[in-house]
Amino acid sequence: MATSLVGRFSYLQQIWDLRYFWSALVRLDLDNRYRNSFFGIGWSLLRPMAMTAVFCVVFGKLFNLSLAEYAPHLIVGMTVWQFFTESLVVGCNTFTAGAAYIRQQQIPLAIFPLRTALGTGFHSLIALGMAISVTGFFKGIDPVAMLSLIPAIMILFLLSWCLAIVSGFAFTHFPDTSHLLEIGLQVLFYATPILYSATSFAGSRGHVTFVLEWNPLTSIIALVRVPIVDGTLPSMQQYGMSLAFLGVVATIALVLLRKLERNLVFWV
Amino acid sequence: MSYIQFSNVDLEYPIRENHAITFKEFVLRGLLRKKKTAVQSVRALADLSFDIHDGERVGIIGLNGAGKSTLLRTIAGVYPISGGQRDVNGAVCSLFDITLGFDFNATGWRNVHIRSYLHGETPATIKSKLQDIADFTELGEFLNLPLRCYSTGMVMRLAFALSTSRRPEILLIDEVFSTGDMLFQKKAEARMRNLLQTAKIVVMVGHDLAFLKEFCTTIIWLHHGRIQAVGPAREIIQAYQSNAAQLLHAA
Fold first, then answer.
1. Which of A37-41, A251-255, B131-135 has the highest mean pLDDT?
2. Contact A107 B103 (CB under 8 A)
3. Which of A73, A101, B188, B221 counts the most CB atoms within 10 A of its CB?
4. Is the per-residue pLDDT at A3 higher than 60?
């Protein structure tokens, strides 16, 4: 027990010792993504923004909601969803992208999913800034409730790191992972309250409410959406559900690292 | 004190029958209770035992596929061993494929930083080395341009300067590499010799037997992942050469 605890700390120490390396990789990724400065950022945000605008017009009418009511709800939901999906999809290539380094020297492999989480996290923070601006424009912002975004962002960041570890290992062993993910994420998108609200089905009983209640993304999105859009603090149940989900994904990620990390060099 | 100790080391190299199996196939095999794994393993290294201490210069020789590069990567800790004991003490510098890992969209300087950070440098420690790298490569303003604008020779110069800017205790080299034009080749040779002399332990794989005979104190001769012979350089190289001559004659 003591040895394994020491082992874990020394693993974290190794990650810390290589901080200049992985932060340089993250900066390189961001530069490649935002090449040509400001327009780069603009273009990379254009697709989700365009999708949000289309959804706003179509579903706002369908749900009979005003733009001021629906746009903040949708844009925050889309931002968190985008972060979640990018962590998984970009995470698929996390180890193959680092193969050249993995084959040269023994390094803690968790730095590569960390690179993914930091890169997608930075991008999502810009998107979140836009979402907050849109909400501020339509409804105003409650600064006290906004403080609860700090733990929410930490939970999301850790979740992203763990998801990238899981999808990275899955992809190195099963190359159809990214394809299966695409299908799974499409289903999950409609089973998550992004376009609609979790309370839209309140009062009705059946499969939909059951799915929404037990879908951990409902709570994860609420951690960000509630303080920005509603100006209140998320409920303890939402925190509990989010932390439980993070715990499950983190456990899977740790088990995969422990079992498969050492032999990964043979598969990348 | 630096040392490398291998005691009955085995290394199994897993190889898939096909390039990879899909998740669908994995699940189907499980449902149909078929053999789940299509992975075979090749015994790349078998029962290797040797000790290398401070001051030793060791050459690894053998035919293609003998396990020379695999042994070097196992010493570096890149490959996990499947049996025996591997004990390495000292800061290791591996010169395997020196251009591997370069980002061709990033500038020369940026690649210098990334590679140096991978080797454990910090922004503070790297400062003193930058001028030396710039002077040695003679790339001047090109260091501010992306690597995709470089010729192959220029990339090699940068890679060589970077790889040899370290002062390791244990130096592992896979094949002696050529580095651009004739003038630079001379410079590179002098720098390489200096690096080889300053490292406490050098282990190198090579096919240049004359160089190995001149430089190495000990030779490990590998054959099909096993040690065929180990001992003083001249003696082992002579035995290796007569064996090769016999094989040639038989062919």
1. A251-255
2. no
3. A73
4. no
Region B238-243: what's the mean pLDDT?
93
Cα gap B56→B201, rounded to integer Å: 5
In a domain, A45, yes or no: yes
Chain B residues with at least one Cβ partner in A under 8 Å: 13-14, 20-24, 26, 73, 76-80, 92, 94, 96-97, 100-101, 103, 105-106, 110, 113-114, 117-118, 120-123
Considering the domain boundaries, does residue A199 fall inside one?
yes
All domains in chain B, ordered by first residue: 3-90+206-250 (3.40.50.300), 95-199 (3.40.50.300)
pLDDT in tens, A108-133: 999 999 999 999 999 999 999 999 99
Q: How far is B101 from chain A (nearest CA, A)?
A: 5
pLDDT confidence tier of residue A157, bands split at 50, 70 and 90: very high
Q: How many domains does chain A have?
A: 1
Is the separation of the CB atoms in A51 and A128 below 8 Å? no
In a domain, A7, yes or no: no
Q: Which residue has the higher pLDDT, A221 or B178?
A: A221
For B139-166, what is each residue's pLDDT tens digit? 999 999 999 999 988 998 899 888 888 8
* Confidence at A199, pLDDT banded by 50, 70, 90: confident
Query: What does each C-alpha distance from B108 to A29, B123, B238 come to in angstroms?
Result: 16, 16, 44
From residue A158, alpha-carbon distances to A18, A76, A79, A80 in Å are 19, 19, 17, 14
Please report the pLDDT score of residue A1 as a whole number.
47
Whether residues A24 and B79 touch (CB distance < 8 A) is answered with no
Size of interface A-B (CB pairs under 8 A): 74
Q: Range of A103's domain? A: 19-266
A103 contacts B96? CB cut-off 8 A: yes
Please report where in the chains the tokens 């003193």 appear, as a residue: B128
The whole-angstrom separation of Cα A88 and Cα A181 is 8
CA distance A25 to chain B (A): 7
- Residue B4's φ and ψ, nearest 5 degrees, are -130, 120
A6 lies in some domain: no
**Which residues of B fall within a CB distance of 8 Å from A103?**
73, 78, 96-97, 100
Q: Choose the closest CB to B23 out of A176, A265, A266.
A: A176
* ipTM attached to this prediction: 0.84
